[in-house]
Amino acid sequence: MKKPLLVIQPLRMGDLILSFPLFLWLSRKFPGHPIWVAAQQTFYEQLRPVGPAVQYFSLSHSYEKLRTTPYELVINLSHDSTSAKLAAEVKSEELFGPVCDAHGELHVRGFWQLYRCALVNCNRHNAFHWADLNAMDIIPQDQMQETVWSSPRSLGGTSSRRVGVFLGASEALKRPCLEFWEELCELLYARKIFPVLLGGPAEQAFATELASRLSFPALNLAGKQSLSELVMTGQGLNMLMTPDTGPMHLAAWSGLKVLNLSIGNVNCMETGPYQPGHYVLRPAMSCAGCWTCRRTPSGLCHRKLKPQAVAYLASQLCRDRVPSGQSAALAGLELWKSSRSEQGLYALEPCRSTEARSRALCSQFWQEFWLAFSGRGSAELPEKTFVHLREKYPALSERMLLGFARFGRDMNRILRFGSTAVQKNFWQQGAPVVSPLRSFAQMAMSNDNWSVQSRRDAVRCAEMLVSICQH
């Protein structure tokens, strides 16, 4: 019998669902190898009927069995200490992700797992989706490019239009308030669209309060269904409107059309609905996609998202019409459709045909650069994007070049003196557009205990950037 593959993913429900594509790719790259997944029993017991065919284990209850089994491959997708300890103790041909060494220090194995760690508080220009990052250290690019995902199903022929309204999210800032949902449900009903209230046990009281406020008898299923039952309910819905939450990913996985209301401290490029053909609506704000909201306690983006805009989009999507981002109803908002790039990676296509903004171009540049630096892409792509950036936004491109020059001067000191020459906020020094370089370099050097080779690699990274920008 072939040795199993182990994926350690004991985080939240959404994180486990976003690992489903990895499970499928592993089964194709390693045929005949059992795939073991260490996860939270609360989630995998409900997701087992609707997810890929893998063998689940409770990390706490099966720790000894997981620790003593030899593996072909181990991928730790978690940042908690128990997972890192297990990853350090197992015997495996290959190992990726955070590992806790004998001295209790955390080190990350794998370029893309290290890249993800460098995004903490520094993800403004990240354009990689979590589901892709889960796999990119292991799965070749051509295999990801060849993967075809099914489009969301259509119920266009039905006379009765029903939409799911998922009320909850893991954090309060990521979900609309009660008054928003109340107004939205009334607007939907006025358009002869019947909202079905959905949520977990945590949303049960919230849904009951909402239902009591409505002028019509809405079907309230919040807290009354398992995850597999939620999938079955979705078979009879035209679509699901939802903040960024685990059930959103489950809906997209099961083929239910999703309209993601992306508000609060979430980046839809990282955690939007993964399969192609879904929609993301987000306030057009410079701080959108933040790691932590610093503007107002309630989130300024909440006030920018209007129920009228969401009701308009729902009426279009229920009729299988392609919504136009040009509509006056969507003023002050950004509407995207999930798709795939030429590299087979997650992408969001703007529904409004306008010239790419500076932030979008910068994110594109950084994505293409990291692909080239890691060997998964060509340097020609970031070269072309930087030419476009320089033509459209010359001042910004000049700040980038100045930032690279400052980084080079800082690295001269670090090459000579090591970590003693590094300030704690090294990654924050310079313009935000240069932060991806500084954050990754600091993380990579620290991860390798500031070795001479890690410092030379950081310099090589900067040299490649300068070469691309001056090509």
UniProtKB/TrEMBL annotation:
<protein>
    <submittedName>
        <fullName>ADP-heptose:LPS heptosyltransferase</fullName>
    </submittedName>
</protein>
<keyword id="KW-0328">Glycosyltransferase</keyword>
<dbReference type="GO" id="GO:0009244">
    <property type="term" value="P:lipopolysaccharide core region biosynthetic process"/>
</dbReference>
<dbReference type="GO" id="GO:0005829">
    <property type="term" value="C:cytosol"/>
</dbReference>
<dbReference type="InterPro" id="IPR002201">
    <property type="entry name" value="Glyco_trans_9"/>
</dbReference>
<dbReference type="GO" id="GO:0008713">
    <property type="term" value="F:ADP-heptose-lipopolysaccharide heptosyltransferase activity"/>
</dbReference>
<dbReference type="InterPro" id="IPR051199">
    <property type="entry name" value="LPS_LOS_Heptosyltrfase"/>
</dbReference>
<keyword id="KW-0808">Transferase</keyword>
<dbReference type="Pfam" id="PF01075">
    <property type="entry name" value="Glyco_transf_9"/>
</dbReference>
